Amino acid sequence: MSESISYFNVKTPNNPLEESIKSYKVIVETPYTLTVEELNKQSLAEFEVEKANFAQVLKDSKAEFEERLAGHDEDVAKAEARYDKEMKNFKALTLFERLSLTEQGKKPQLKVPSKPTYVEPREPVYMQPNLDDHLIFDNQVLADNVELMGYEKGSDLLIVINISKMVFQDNGGQTFYAQPTNLKVMKGATVIDEKNFDEEFQFLTSSNSNTINLERYEKNNVNKIMNHISNYINEEFGFIPVQSSITIEFPKNKKRKYDILENAKIKAISAYRKLKKDVSGETRQRAIDELIAVREIWKSELAKIDYANKKALMNKEVAVMIFYNLLQVDISLKDKVQAEETLALLQERRIDLDLNNGEKSAFTRLEEQVYKL
């Protein structure tokens, strides 16, 4: 019999922090001071000016229309005169020349200007400004969105992010940018790590900078930088959760003869259930300790196996289950030493176990995982 359980393992960081560090604090500094309230106030003020000027805009548009309408007859007369002159010159050409120009689409045509029509300007309507088009950032919100996985918010570690203004550069009709950003990871006054992002100019778009929405590009880039920094600090120092699953094998226990193994299975499943994506480091360690204790139970039960007697309570079929569980737990705990020890014991008993093809394949896959630890 078997029971499967999904859990979250963790990827070991490239540069694990000292064990004394349990928490972190993030500070983000940016040059952006505009707030939503200020933007709305400015937008409303501009709307009031536009609304106050609307009567004049309407008056000017009507005057412009009347002027264009008054000049329409003169424009038509000029077009007709130009056409008459072009046709006179065209008719003076030879037949061959006229045919050639006609084939090229160059025969004179009368193009009379259309009569102007009046389109009244629309009365101003207030619209909320699109925040995506404005450089509005709350430094505290940016800081709160940075998560160092496996640690809690506190003060043991200080992460300081300093973002500068985006600089644009045109080159050959294309736009390039740089936005130097400095990251410092500190314990007290000691700098543990420092890294710069986006300090070199790089390609942004195939359009000139005067044809694009610079603020939107800059806003998107700030968010991109923050994502890059989050990924970096977690790769270096965090414990990134990775979804995994495990299957625990156990014998039928109808007559309560395998209570020890069933209890071990229950404890193992319970420990893995604790390993959730957002579990604290303390809870994760408690679950690991529980799995280590279960592993000792399995090792103790493995010593009771009678490999020669198929009818024995603790026979080789039970041994296969225990070996399978031990290797899986060793691998999930990334315990290379213990996994190699279990594997060596398995190899010693390989003949006694008399594995079938399916079992051989399963143990081969586990063996390959042990070598990758």
Automatic annotation (TrEMBL):
<keyword id="KW-0175">Coiled coil</keyword>
<protein>
    <submittedName>
        <fullName>Uncharacterized protein</fullName>
    </submittedName>
</protein>
<feature type="coiled-coil region">
    <location>
        <begin position="62"/>
        <end position="89"/>
    </location>
</feature>
